[in-house]
Amino acid sequence: MPSIAAIPEPMAVDDSASKKAKRKQLKAEAAAAAEAAAASSGKKEKKEKKDKKRKTKEPASSDEEGRSSTSSDSDRAPSAKKAKKEKKDKKAKAEPAEEPANDDGELTASGEEEEPADPNALANFRISDKLKDKLKSKGINALFPIQATTFALVLDGNDLVGRARTGQGKTLAFVLPILESLVNGPHKATRRTDYGRPPSVLVLLPTRELANQVHADFEFYGGTFGLSTCCAYGGSPYRPQENALRQGVDIVVGTPGRVKDLIEKQKLNLRCLKFRVLDEADEMLNMGFKDDVELILGKVEDVTKVQTLLFSATLPEWVKKLSMSFLKADRKTVDLVGNEKMKASASVKHLALPCNKAARSQIIPDIIKCYSHGGRTIIFTETKESASELSSLIPGSRALHGDIAQAQREVVIAGFRSGKFLVLVATNVAARGLDINDVQLIIQCEPPRDVEAYIHRSGRTGRAGNTGIAVMLFEPRYKFGVTRIERESGVKFEHISAPQPTDVAQSAGNEAAEAIASVSDSVIPVFRQQAEELLSNSSMSAVDLLAKALAKAVGYTDIKKRSLLSSMENHTTLHLQTGRPLYTPSFVISTLKRFMPEDRLSSLHGITLTTDGTSAVFDVPSAEVQDYIQGAENVAGVTIDEVKQLPALQEREQSKGNFGGSRFGGRGGGGRRFGGGGGEDLKTV
Ligand SMILES: Nc1ncnc2c1ncn2[C@@H]1O[C@H](COP(=O)(O)OP(=O)(O)OP(=O)(O)O)[C@@H](O)[C@H]1O
Question: Which UniProt keywords apply (predicted)?
Answer without folding.
Answer: ATP-binding, Helicase, Hydrolase, Nucleotide-binding, Nucleus, RNA-binding
